[in-house]
Amino acid sequence: EPEVTQTPSHQVTQMGQEVILRCVPISNHLYFYWYRQILGQKVEFLVSFYNNEISEKSEIFDDQFSVERPDGSNFTLKIRSTKLEDSAMYFCASSESVSTGELFFGEGSRLTVL
Amino acid sequence: QKEVEQDPGPLSVPEGAIVSLNCTYSNSAFQYFMWYRQYSRKGPELLMYTYSSGNKEDGRFTAQVDKSSKYISLFIRDSQPSDSATYLCVPREGYQKVTFGTGTKLQVIP
């Protein structure tokens, strides 16, 4: 069964460092998303991406965040200068259609900022 | 009033019990109703999807939508320890981004 894969599964970084989280969405999907979940809290929407551009972003997704689809398969989330409060699980998701709301999530990348 | 309200639980039931998880919403424009399930430290996964009012059954799971009262339910028959997870109801309009609340944490005790 096709799945969304994310790397790394866990990354530890120092405050102020740049981090890139990588995702390989399901191959025939056209819509891509990043969500994050701080420990013990709800899953929060960060950004959606379609046709090589951001279609929507939340207020969390400020200038330190960026997304890119550098080739036909990868979808990346870059955090430019990490802060302690960026420590969270980051989930990538993809969908075939935006109308159904059926998102397929990856296993997540746990980011720990020290 | 919050747009979507769901009892956060935790809800503890013995194995084999029938579980009822409920949600209310305020936006009458919602047409798509989904239940996602999230296991601890995993991403959410879509469990059930219904459009407009009515019932939908899938194995031990039944989703019910009553648009007139803005009430959504998920029933789990013969609950199993493997059903222990957080259940998230997600009503939405078409083309709206998927957003999650805190969900209801369910624990099925063997």
Highlighted features:
heterodimer, A: mainly beta, 7-stranded mixed beta sheet, 4-stranded antiparallel beta sheet, 11 strands, 0% helix, globular, B: 110 residues, mainly beta, 5-stranded mixed beta sheet, 10 strands, 54% strand
Short structural summary:
The complex is a heterodimer of chains A (114) and B (110). Chain A has strands spanning 5-7, 10-13, 19-24, 31-37, 44-50, 53-57, 65-68, 75-79, 88-95, 104-105, 109-113.
Structural notes for this entry:
The complex is a heterodimer of chains A (114) and B (110). By secondary structure, chain A is mainly β. Chain A contains no helices and eleven strands. In chain A, the strands form two sheets. In chain A, strands 2, 4, 5, 6, 9, 10 and 11 form a seven-stranded mixed beta sheet that branches. Chain A is globular. Chain B has strands at residues 4-6, 11-14, 19-25, 32-38, 45-51, 54-58, 61-66, 71-76, 85-92, 104-109. In chain B, a hairpin with a 4-residue loop joins strand 7 and strand 8 (71-76). Classes of the chains: A mainly beta (114), B mainly beta (110). The interface between A and B is medium-sized, with 24 and 23 residues.
